[in-house]
Amino acid sequence: MPKVLIADKLSPAAITIFQERGLDFDNKPGMSKDELLACVDQYDGIAIRSATKITKEVLAKATKLKVVGRAGIGVDNVDIPAATAAGVIVMNTPFGNSITTAEHAISLMLALARELPAANASTQAGKWEKNRFMGVEITGKVLGLIGAGNIGSIVADRARGLKMRVVAFDPYLSPERAVELGVEKVELNDLLARADFITLHVPLTAETKNVLSANAIAKTKKGVRIINCARGGLVDEFALKAALDSGHVAGAALDVFDTEPATENILFGSDKLVATPHLGASTSEAQENVALQVAEQISDYLLTGAVVNALNMPSISAAEAVKVKPWINLAEKLGSFAGQLTGTSLTGVEIIYEGTPTALNTKAMTQAVILGLLQPMLTGVNMVNAPEIAKDRGVRVSETRRDAEGIYEGYIKIVVTMTDAQGVQTTRRVAGTVFSDGRPRLIQIKDIDLDSEFAAHMLYVVNEDKPGFIGRLGTLLGDASVNIANFTLGRSAPGQDAICLVEVDGKVDEALLTKISKLPAVRMARELNF
Question: How many helices and strands in the chain, by DSSP H and E?
């Protein structure tokens, strides 16, 4: 049974999920780095919050590890590239604290608009500075939303309920979704020029780092107020301080900072700043939700293969996993078939999905094809890192979907492109389907129809369709004491290209392959292993 390490504190209800699902687990929150390194090789899964660091060093020791689950959104404490290279799926729980974080952003916006923290401190100090704290209304004001994903869309809904007008910058926001949310989709410069309040709801990436830079802040209207409950690093803190000091920015409310814990910061001490210690997800409801979700997600993956909220792998629900697994198996075997016949000149692969698989998770199937293709050529390739390796090697990957035609309700066909040193391209084509019992079948090679199972050991022969070939091949195999388990033939036309797939009971050595290659009419002879 898979074993899970609970490395950070989870609720008793979340731990109960592991128990009820029958998983073995150790509950060891608060371990030191050395303690983690000493035991991490025992576990198939690790559940964390923000304290435990899953570094490259930890991953190198975690030889059994298959999945890391983060109870929360941010995964700054996980080395995702190293996890991907190691074939470890990294999951988070992006929806468990969405409402909590959105509500915190709205709370900070209201506190900022009416200068509540400063007014509270002044009043409790015995002052009565009624004329000092002249806030602004939010009704009718323009809220600029940078990021309109799950949390951003909730903020937009709440803001519209407060009678604000919402404009949103998000490259992934479709016009249809903008209409559904009741927001106006704009470019960033337009948002900066129009917004009375700006709130950020995007992850920290190379593209979003300092999205509110000195240059961007200079484009905002005078008196703008900025709220950030997403990630430190989205706002240039030095540029923000200069804008607050000059009065161009009327106020800022930050829940996140470049360096956390933020025990000191260049912005601290300003009466125009409202600061909280990364409280966006800090409600009892949110903490419980993300703990339960991460326990469910890790359990589902280890027990059923379901992949939910993964950051380096296509998601597959538990219900979908049952349907898609046979097709993933077929996809990997088709890739392996082509990969074992392909040299290092691989430059592209087109994957054609017809009928049944088009309604399933083709991303996972495509990933399996790439894995199968690359494994015969490279070491260290796995389901998680295969697409990145293909991309780094310049292999173009494309998908085509179409309705079912012909006798099969669904099939997968791959077309592999190879380019030699002179730039001459050749292609290799292979197709397969899944039978009702879940078994994958080869149905076409080089556009020649046939029907064959995949076997552990197979002999692949391309030859001219000439009388006597089968007898000569059978004699060679018999003389070498190689037992034939199955024999499949296909040809393009009488006397033209023919293909022979022979399932044998053991490996075929090089000496026998050489003899087969020298048979009259044989153009290629290869051993295939699945």
Answer: 17, 22
